[in-house]
Design goal:
Helices cover about 40% and strands about 25% of the residues. It contains 3 helices and 5 strands; from the N terminus they run ααβββαββ. Strands 3-2-1-4-5 form a 5-stranded antiparallel β-sheet, covered by helices on one side. β4 (about 100-105) and β5 (about 115-120) form a beta hairpin. The radius of gyration is 28 Å and the shape is rod-shaped. The termini are far apart.
């Protein structure tokens, strides 16, 4: 009712078209700020290293800058960098020959690059 009085008054500074444009602009700004806040919180939440217990199925011959490794628990090929610690490759070979699990660390869930390999504690 109040809006009708404002819009019907000839002396108003804002007509209905301008008011709708300003209102939609306000909604867009609020939506973009909330999306930006969600992305920022989401990024910090998943920035930690991902650890998986896996058993090596096969270590492929070295390719350009990486050694492809396939695990029994995953269909993906993971990449061990050529400049990685040689102990990581030794642990992966031991896992392949003895069928034991190792702890594989990656940067995030989508990454296929192996950051480190550790022997499981207690084994």
């Amino acid at each position: 009712m109040l809006l009708n009085k404002v819009f019907n008054n000839k002396k108003t500074l804002i007509n209905s078209t301008r008011f709708k444009c300003l209102l939609s602009l306000l909604f867009i700004m609020v939506g973009s700020f909330s999306c930006a806040a969600f992305k920022q919180n989401h990024k910090h939440k998943h920035s930690s290293v991902v650890e998986n217990k896996m058993t090596v199925a096969i270590i492929r011959p070295a390719e350009y800058k990486f050694i492809p490794v396939n695990f029994l628990e995953s269909a993906r090929f993971y990449k061990l960098p050529m400049d990685a610690n040689p102990a990581f490759l030794e642990l992966l070979k031991a896992s392949e020959h003895n069928h034991i699990q190792v702890l594989v660390k990656r940067a995030d869930e989508k990454s296929d690059i192996i950051l480190s390999v550790e022997r499981l504690k207690g084994k």
